[in-house]
Amino acid sequence: MPALYIMIPAALLIVAIAIYIFFWAVDSGQYDDLDSPAHSILFDDQDPQHTAAVEEAKGQPSASLKEADHKTPPHA
Questions:
Q1: Under 8 Å CB-to-CB from 51, ≥6 apart: which residues?
Q2: What is the pTM of this model?
Q3: Is 61 inside a domain boundary?
Q4: Distances (CA, A) of 57 to 3, 10, 13, 22
Q5: Which CA distances in Å does 67 have to 8, 13, 47, 72?
Q6: How confident is the model at residue 45 (pLDDT cuts 50, 70, 90)?
Q7: How far apart are CA 45 and CA 34, in angstroms?
Q8: Its domain of life (predicted)?
Q9: 8 HSE (CA, 13 A, CB side)
């Protein structure tokens, strides 16, 4: 029974710390974008169309897409 006087406050302290860490992670943006890291491994960083799409998503003008448009496709 005397162990409960130590274990219950210790458990409450651990729960309070876990809740604080969770809210800190949410406020600092750790959970803002969960999909991009999973998809980024599938795309080549050197691909001009992918680079243009990433720049366009960020709101920047896409210079690499303009370069890709000027290239002529290979003829079969």
A1: 45, 62, 64
A2: 0.48
A3: yes
A4: 57, 47, 43, 28
A5: 65, 58, 12, 10
A6: low
A7: 19
A8: Bacteria
A9: 5
